[in-house]
Amino acid sequence: MSTKEKTSEELLLEEAVLTENEIVLFNDDVNTFDHVIETLINACEHTSEQAEQCAILVHYKGKCTVKTGAYKELKPRCSKLLEAGLSAEII
After folding, report:
1. How far apart, in Å, do the first and last CA atoms of the chain sit?
2. Spatial contact of 16 and 79, defined as CB atoms under 8 Å apart
3. How far apart are CA 81 and CA 9, in angstroms?
């Protein structure tokens, strides 16, 4: 692989990383574990195990990234979380 090809490949990888956004879910004192788990399954298409792990992380760490991807794909998912009464944001 030439130096030029390697540099181009590195730039493409950097662009891919920069276009990734995250939905971060925050802990609150209102919602139950069951509600958070069900909402993650419906809004983010998590398996029940993924949703449960995220709920536990949010509870003990205060926040957790629950989905990554392009902003336009995350916006409707984040809206569903917010409509369900959860605290979330896209970063």
Report:
1. 35
2. no
3. 36
On whether the pTM is more than 0.85, the answer is: no
pLDDT in tens, 15-31: 555 679 999 999 999 99
Name the residue among 82, 51, 79, 80 with its Cα closest to residue 64. 51
Cα–Cα distance for residue pair 45/53, rounded to 1 Å: 14
Kindly report the three-state secondary structure assignment for every residue of the chain.
Answer: CCHHHHHHHHHHHHHHHHCCEEEEEECCCCCCHHHHHHHHHHHHCCCHHHHHHHHHHHHHHCEEEEEEECHHHHHHHHHHHHHCCCEEEEC
C-alpha radius of gyration, the chain, whole number: 16
